[in-house]
TrEMBL record:
Complete-protein stretch covered: 345 to 619 of 624
Domain of life according to the entry: Bacteria
Residue span(s) of domain EAL: 23-273
Organism of origin: Rhizobium mesoamericanum STM3625
Listed name of the protein: Putative GGDEF/EAL sensory box domain protein
Length: 275
């Protein structure tokens, strides 16, 4: 902190204090959010390009704060991770997602995001098994999505957990693929069932040859390694048409549908087939 004559420093400190207070307030609210039933899961369809149908849903957490309204996950998940609340929240998400999936047809999967802390500070395979058995959902209906940062933080600890999860029969997807700096080395260290190519790679694939070449190469890489390939963030018919001609298995994005409340799943499953 620079001391430029007193006044600037006091202002700076006051601003920082206000930020810290706001954070503490949010943290206090987060601690009671589960018991007050303020969380909700929305579901976004995963669309199979060869079968031309919805083949699963990704569960996306929503927090309906009593006064702030809907707080986006990017605002509270990092905080929940820092203060350790993400373990309890993650358990709630797993249980709710497995329960919701039971209402869908057998061939529809549910994908759940898990954070790094769940790998290192809790018994994730145990929590997954408990959620599956409480809902009586077969393991092959569940997929967990893990970002590279999860692995990066502690690969030695994460690898045995990944193997235990895979052993239990669930599927494992690498999320936001391409955004970290060591994506490629992880593909050799662990047999992912799926890669989800980050939405930043979709930008420009229709207009720009280089953008398309990169997308195409990533798809081919995943395909060559025997993984299912999903492209996230597909927003237009042109992008869909282009990906349809590649070895891309699945797409997800606003063009098919934004995330919707669980009650809308039957409607989303009946989405018209697209050419
Ligand atoms: P993510 O796992 O990469 O999820 C995809 C995000 O992209 C979602 O944002 C989704 O609404 C958004 N999206 C979907 N289609 C499109 C599109 O066509 N264009 C654009 N621009 N965006 C699209 P959301 O729901 O705000 O979630 C943000 C992030 O929060 C997620 O990114 C995930 O990392 C995290 N998150 C969400 N739910 C959970 C959870 O239950 N547990 C944990 N640990 N993290 C979660
Ligand atoms: Ca995800
Ligand atoms: Ca993603
Ligand atoms: Ca494939």
């Amino acid at each position: 902190v620079k001391n430029n004559g007193g006044k600037g420093e006091r202002l700076f400190t006051a601003e920082m204090e206000a930020q810290i207070d706001a954070r503490h307030a949010l943290e206090a609210d987060l601690r009671t959010a589960i018991e007050r039933d303020e969380f909700d899961l929305h579901y976004q369809p995963l669309y199979d390009l060869s079968q031309q149908r919805v083949c699963g849903f990704e569960a996306l957490l929503r927090w309906n704060h009593p006064t702030r309204g809907r707080v986006p996950p990017m605002e509270f998940i990092p905080l929940a991770e820092e203060v350790g609340l993400v373990v309890d929240i993650g358990r709630w998400v797993l249980r709710r997602a497995c329960h919701d999936a039971l209402h869908w047809p057998d061939n529809i999967k549910v994908a759940v995001n898990v954070s790094a802390i769940q790998f290192t500070d809790s018994d994730l395979p145990g929590d997954v098994a408990a959620a599956l058995s409480a809902a009586r959902l077969p393991a092959n209906r569940l997929e967990v999505e893990i970002t590279e940062s999860v692995l990066m933080e502690n690969l030695d600890e994460a690898l045995p957990v990944l193997h235990a999860l895979k052993q239990s029969g669930i599927r494992i997807a690498m999320d936001d693929f391409g955004t970290g700096y060591s994506s490629l080395s992880y593909l050799r260290r662990f047999p992912f069932d799926k890669i989800k190519i980050d939405k930043s790679f979709v930008n420009g694939i229709v207009e720009d040859r280089e953008a398309f070449a990169i997308m195409r190469a990533i798809i081919l890489l995943g395909d060559a390694l025997g993984m299912r390939v999903t492209v996230e963030g597909v927003e237009t018919a042109e992008q869909l048409a282009l990906l349809q001609r590649e070895a891309c298995d699945e797409i997800q994005g606003y063009y098919i549908s934004p995330p919707q409340p669980a009650a809308d799943a039957p409607y989303l499953l009946a989405l018209p087939q697209r050419e």
